[in-house]
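ok so I'm stuck.
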Amino acid sequence: MTVRVKKNHPALKHGGFSVAALLPGEDPAAFEKLYQDLIAEYQIDGPSEYDTIATIARLMWRKQNRETFRIAESARNRYSAIISAKVPSTTPPPYDFSVMLGSPPGWVPPDPAEVKAATAVADAEARKELGPRYIFVEMGKEVTISKMLEDLEVEERLDAMIHKQFKHLFFLKGLKSVSSMAPSTSVPRIEGPQKAA
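replied:
not stuck anymore, here's the structure
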């Protein structure tokens, strides 16, 4: 049975909570300390350096906190197991298609009200059992390795475009500095030896 999940969990709306930075259950103070330590270590100055060090901090944080993804996957798996055990299936069981077409003999779809009630009971049980880990069920695919890699790929492409523009900017600045060094008046000629008459 598929689980319906809100597209954007409230935790994802805040700057600190994203797949690339902090996830629920992770320590914001520890992340801030890592970020500040990197700023101090590399003596960061200026918006482009701050952006670069923020990216490094997020990547180092994810590397150090990979366990969060395992916890999230475990919570989603347990939720699915609870739902599967408690909620009647709305799809017929598999059967041999070579024997006949249509639904298997004797299978009757469950009453929608019964499915809804069983889903509510199973969801309440999952909330209670999973406790604070239930947030990972609500967040769905937002807290998966594949989603993190997808986000990092987008970030990498954006970084490549930014780097290309910086390269262009530095090229233009170099041209300006060369042209500003060129004298505005003509350089006096140095006379060579005079021809003998």
